[in-house]
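Late entry, evening session. Most of the bench is empty. Finally got around to the prediction I had been postponing all week. Sequence below, unchanged from the version circulated by S.P.
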Amino acid sequence: MHALRHDILSASGVDFAVSLNLTSSTSSTVVNIVTAKSNLLRVYGIRELPSPIFDHVESERDKRARVRKGTEAVEGEVEMDQSGEGWVNMGTVKSNVIQEPATTYHFYLMREHTLHGTVTGIDKVRTISSSDDKLDRLLVSLKDAKIALLEWSEATHDLVTVSIHTYERSPQMSVLDSHLFRAELRADPLSRCAALSLPKDSLAILPFYQTQAELDVMEQDQSLAREVPYSPSFVLDLVADVDPNVRNVIDFVFLPGYNNPTIAVLCQSEKTWAGRLKEFRDTGRLYIFTLDLLSHTYPIITAVDNLPYDCLSLLPCAQSIGGVVILTVNSLIYVDQAARRVSLPVNGWSARVSDIHSLPLDKDLNLSLEGSSLVFADEKTFFVIRKDGIVHPVEIISDGRTVSKLVLSPALAQTTIPAVTKQLDGGMLFVGSSVGPSVLLKAVRVKEEVEEGEADDTSATPAAVVDTKNSMDIDDFEDDDLYGESKSVTQMAANGVAPGARSSRTRSVVHLSLCDSLPAYGPIADMTFSLSKLGERYVPELVVATGSSHLGGFTLFQRDLPIRTKRKLHVLGGARGIWSIPVRQSHRVNGTSYEKTGSGLFAEECDTIVISTDANPSPGVSRIATRTAKADLAIPTRIPGTTVGAGPFFQRTAVLHVMTNAIRVLEPDGICDPFVLILREDDTIGLFIGEMERGKIRRKDMSPMGEKSSRYLTGCFYTDKSGLFEMTTTDGTVTAGADKTITSTLQTVVTAGHNSQWLALVRPQGTMEIWSLPKLTLVFSTGAITALEPVLNDTFDPPALSPLQDPPRKPQDLDIEQILIAPLGESAPIPHLFVFMRCGHLAIYDAHSISPPTPPKRQKKPVLAEQKRIFRTFVPFVTSPTTSNVNGSHTLTGVFFTGDRPSWILRTDRGGLKLFPSGHAVVHAFTACSLWESKAEFLVYSDEGPSLLEWMPDIELDTSLPKRSLPRSRPYSNVVFEPSASLIVAASTLQARFASYDEDNNILWEPDGAGVSFPQCDCSTLELISPDNWMTMDGYEFAPNEYVNALECVTLETLSTESGSRDFIAVGTSIDRGEDLAVKGATYIFEVVEVVPDPSCPIQRWYKLKLRVRDDAKGPVTALCGINGYLVSSMGQKIFVRAFDLDERLVGVAFLDVGVYVTSLRVLKNLLLIGDAVKSVWLVAFQEDPYKLVILAKDIRRTYATNIDFFFTNGELSIVLDDEEGVLRLLSYDPSGNWISTLEVDSTSCVVQSSTATRSAELLVRLHGERRRTMRFHRRSSSPDSQTGSLSALTPVDEGAFKRLHLLQGQLVRNVQHVASLNPRAYRIVRNDAESKPLSRGVLDGQLLGAFEEQSIQGQQEMTRQIGTERMTVLRDWKTFFPMHLMVASGLCWMVDKLCVYASSEFANDGSAFVVRFTTTMQYSSGHKRTTCVYNMYLWLYDREFNGQFLLLI
């Protein structure tokens, strides 16, 4: 059996980040930030943009209504300045001073790459070529000991590989536990070298040339050094070459301000832990040594020993101070070059675990710095961001270069949970998080005046404060409490002032403010399908438990962009086209035209008429509809004939109505210089222009474009508002730089807002030309568009000739059917070129300016579409989706692709270009509509007829699937869907104080000093949640030391229903009792019951959780499932099958001793699949007469089975196994031989993501109560990354398609230049413990095969020719694999067993694949009447038949 693995969602969050000048600076881009998570690399630009302004539609009365009476600002009061840099006194501001417009900083995604390797670090360097272009280069380290050097190419607007350096064959990588090692990358501040940590306490050093003197010494040519900017690398053995005590390296950094590269290494000469502190304590050491890259000598400058054993990381200080700051769990330690130490304890444990001399402890201070991150705000102030996001400023008090003490201020604010922190230029700070959103902060030190009373009170002079302005867009954080209340620090020393001075004094304060954020949902703990109500219909929705700590909550994913129908408009028609048009109403007074405005200032921007057309009955009919006073549609005019196009004309004072045989201008009332392009049936065109004097249309001379008989396939206009196409026309007027001032008179309207206009045409021979208007000057020409080349460059060819052909030319498959140049984006839309070919290919390019005057267009996203008889067209639109954000709505510019399988094409600032299905089978006509004074509505004529639609509120479009975020301020470990009541049951994870007791319930230890408190442990609560409004209806609190391991919705036999069975909620828990007592567990059975709702509650039906059974166990209950009406549970290495007797107790009917520790259970009919932590997979059958568990097969190999599942199609059955190293295996069941058969590895293995190991270790941590500390240490050493939050699919592949695609993989590996020159085959290869050949066949790599679509058509044809097949055959094979069968969420194999029916299901064949449909019965109430309905839900997946039954695997 063969399968294909491909990604649905990429990794979410940030593990590594670096700030650098990667791209050429522009007027808006300040600096670049490159982030990495797992195998995902993103390049962002930080743009300086004007601060967002509230909508103009609100009147002054509305603004005043929001100001509480008596609090209005008057002159002299303190108000926030517009620049956001602090506070100003309005009384001191002169009236004639003009303030500059306020600006803020925002992220903008430039490029995104999925690498064939796991990133372990990124940094920046400057090579000898940087002296020419002033740009930095990017260093990327990977898990298998590789370093890739990349740079930015302006020609391709992408990263290109300069070199790759591999150390995987070094002796240090040959150790047995090398896969458990996490390599770290560091670069010298002056870019003289870079270092990569290797196992066995070694560093790989990569030197770089910086000056001509270095080239002379190495006898290198300068021209060669620009191509090879590095000298030979070497491996530095710290034990042998530096000092024998440099062992067990914890962290290392480069220090600034030295003539030679200088490294500080934090290590631990002797490993110890809390239980050995009496024998070994203060085992930490710090060594500072220099690197002589020429003589290869490494003298030690400073050596410091007797540091605490719990040291975590290093932070290098600025050159003016020198030294490093050491972060430990219980203290902060500053060490300078002379080995002087200044220790600041943060809790009472510091003095108990270390003998280092420390400053006095504040009795009210009790912090834990484990998981914290440090970042400097300026030279003497750094922030400590704890693992819960709490920010503490720390000031370094020094006299010159001698540091006397560290002063820790109280909590300043709460931000995201840090994984990496970086200081940027301009006082900006980047806090990257792997479990939630990453934020961009701005820290600026300013001088503030101190009042006389405050001057004497040092406690009132803070070192840092939070700006409370609300002038920044933080709409990515839906939870208002995410950052808590903004407050000031109230304890720091004031600046010194001359004694006795009575004048005003000043203090230096760091102002901290939020600029922007990168949305992310973090790791996936569990997921289930639910039903989401969109208007009057229900659609499946994937509910995912994401995040951690206060960033925890739910993330809701849907395949299609969620929309809801606001009203049906059957009277409108419009099967052949709909156009919603804004037309200005005007009237004349004394010969001057004035605009007739509506109620609001910008009411004229709303649409006023709608034109629709139908082809039947012949010759068609066109309707002109307007809105009535009752908000209905009225059709005052009907015109015989079919409308080809319509749009606003003469600066929206008239309507241009184009029919099959006529061009009309309806009610002209203004003058302008618009153009009209007509495409005729014989492939000729007509270009028309509006006359200024007469207000009519005339033909435009097209002689510069060639003969009148020239043929064209398609064309479009583009009005450039971005300035990218800005040019000076031949008549000497700069069209794009005109005044855009808003005015209410028509005479000024028609002369304002002019932008450069362009005409794009495609000739039959495949040449695309761009002409400037109105003079028709050829400015761009390329013949590479039909080949879909990655980059389109100007060939500077003259106008192409396309004479009349005899016989007439027949349409070709590679003919371009339609092109469109339209802006896409959010804050600053940029032009994109959309190309749709007759064979069904869709390609999207974006335009970029480079130093030559020819703007290339870079291909962003090729999409495989299928050509149908239904006409497909691109429709640009601008919308302002509704949002609950207090800062108002944002504007999106996109394109809708009509026809069969319609799609939304959108681009966001932080997510890039995305394509989302609309959810309709077919859309015949589409237009954005603001007829009802809403900028978020659309008129759509779909298979359901004409209707008015809008997006669901608060939709986020930054991921491959549209999502909604539901912050709950707590994480959830398990979530299930209860189908009988259509509710969500989730287990939340909280923290509680843990106290250890003996057998007689006597407490063993209590806090006995200042700064010492009880430890924290996990605890859980069960919540019953309504998916309609996400309100918690009921809950159940477990014991403070009890947490949930397993949560399932199972069907058990019962006497309370007529059918004899019903759904119950089964819960398995663990109970921690300390290190001296064995862990216990329990099994709970809950029933969801309906109760009488509260009359004040708007919800008409209310439910609660009713506890039926609590069954104690001697060990942790780790896995649960249901089989034939019985409950299957695991306790350690035992499996129990129990019956639900009399709805009040669980009675055992069968049991089985399996491996060592059961991790997962899966059921198919009467087959039970058991996953074990040591003994891999067992296949067991359950029989009822007599009750018995029969072992059918088991895997004889020792594998940690973290998750398992069934995987089958077309009569073939396989078992999917996921282990702790991130390897996904397919095993086949061989029933031949003895009654116990072996599950053979079918040579089908595939590395999923390295994050899988984290999920495995996390599960083991939660289940092994008494070994929690040990397993946490193992988790840190075994897993290089945290959970990635990625979502993958495993799809079965038939034999013929597998052979073709497997051969294609080989071509892609050899013939495609992969990012960072990585080897895709090496990334996916798996070691085979049974045979001497690797496991690399049987599972196709969807990430690698996806590169085939990005190749040009000629490249695709060449690859398929070499493997003996056709290009379209391979593309059809690839298209069938987009639907999903099995989802893998960060290594969590999971299938839909809550909504699916393991029985014969109805299906419909649409000619290309089977569309799975299943039914479920649900009840809802309308008023006082209860109705039972059957809903047919079409899941967003396809399935194949298996012995007359369907199994829905997600």
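Two things to note before I forget:
The first strand starts at residue 2 and ends at 9.
The chain has a mean pLDDT of 78.
Will write this up properly tomorrow.
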